[in-house]
Design goal:
By secondary structure, the protein is α+β, with helices and mostly antiparallel strands. It has one domain: Cytochrome p450 (Orthogonal Bundle), CATH 1.10.630. It is built from 17 helices and 14 strands. The chain has helices at about 20-25, 25-35, 55-60, 90-100, 105-110, 110-125, 135-140, 140-150, 155-170, 175-200, 210-215, 225-240, 240-255, 255-265, 270-280, 315, 350-370, and strands at about 1-5, 40-45, 50, 70, 130, 215, 220, 290, 295-300, 300-305, 310, 330, 370-375, 395-400. It has a five-stranded mixed β-sheet. It has a three-stranded antiparallel β-sheet with strand order 5-14-13. Strand 6 (about 215) and strand 7 form a beta hairpin. The chain is globular and about 60 Å long. Residues about 175 have low confidence and may be disordered.
Length: about 400
Amino acid sequence: MTDVGTPAEPVFEFNSLMQPEFSKCPWPYYKQMRDTNPVLRAGNGVTEFVFIARHEDIDRVLHAPRLFSSRPDESQSGDPLIPITFDPPEHSKWRRILDPMFSPREMAKLEDGIAQRANGLIDGFVERGECDYANEYAVPLPCLVFMQLMGFPLEEFETFVDIKERILRGGGESFQSQDPVQRQARDQIDTRIAELLDERRREPRDDLLTRLLNTEIEGRPLTHEELMGTCNLLFIAGLDTVTDSLSCFYAFLATNPVHRQRIVEDPDVIPKAVEEMLRYESPVTMVLPRLVTEETELGGCPVHAGDRIVPLLGSANNDESVVENPHVVDFDRPAMRHYAFGGGVHRCLGSHLARLELHISLREWHRRIPEYHIPDGVELKYAALLRQVEHLPLVFDKVVA
């Protein structure tokens, strides 16, 4: 185990979320907020949010959907993202339909295919002795796996990834300047998903698009709006979160050889290593805002009906009140409940697939490339909001045929 250190503690502000300093090293911001202002009302000049940083408050919000609702406010347009924008009991109906599609048993069927795809990607650069990890591995591995599962055309991989990037990260330096870019990208993916659904109506296949078309809720087929809302959420989640985690994991392992060597020498530690790096890195730094439905309080501070609460998951996962030595990355840490996949009824639908992809990646990569490093002088740049290393060059010190 290694203490990764705690840099000086800057002040957390709304604009911090869009700054590379926060994305690269969020922990001191989290700690400063927990210690001085754990319930922070802040905004961007257009919209106000209430950020919460302590594990206790975040746990309460995630497990009280009646009081802290996931439904979008009236200002948001478009089809609702299903099931994440529904609360119980409506949410429960959708999870009963969707959970079996992503169950551990269903996901286990994908293991051989994921391993083959991982090794196929490695084959493309292993003899070169180096790679751009983000673009040559962290992006294509989970994206191609998920596109095949959904039934999206693999030859449109680059187009789908580009649309996803514009939806999630836009093209500007603030939320306002991103909006036109994001709207255009949403329109583009809506059009393509609708086309693919029409194709599956004519020619069913063994994929999730066909399965959704054949699914019923309360004795009726899904409406077009329901199909679009479900597919849109799956598209966003399936093409981004595992990529984020992989890039953060390998940036950490490339600079922490003791941890890397532990994985090489003892592959059985990989499941525990995945959970500990998910806890520490927390690439999904926050969940969608929760809408307060009635007057209440958080951390002793009043919050009002209509307020939008933003739980900082990364802060909860590194809160000293529940995690002993949170800045120590310890693969032997006793099992604990972290919030890398959210929590409560809205816990990530695809968590079983994500874990499987992370496990297989660490196993296959370190079996073939046990030693690697980041070249001297390279300054890593992390994407805002969802922590992802945008460019991660790796040089291989040792490879195995």
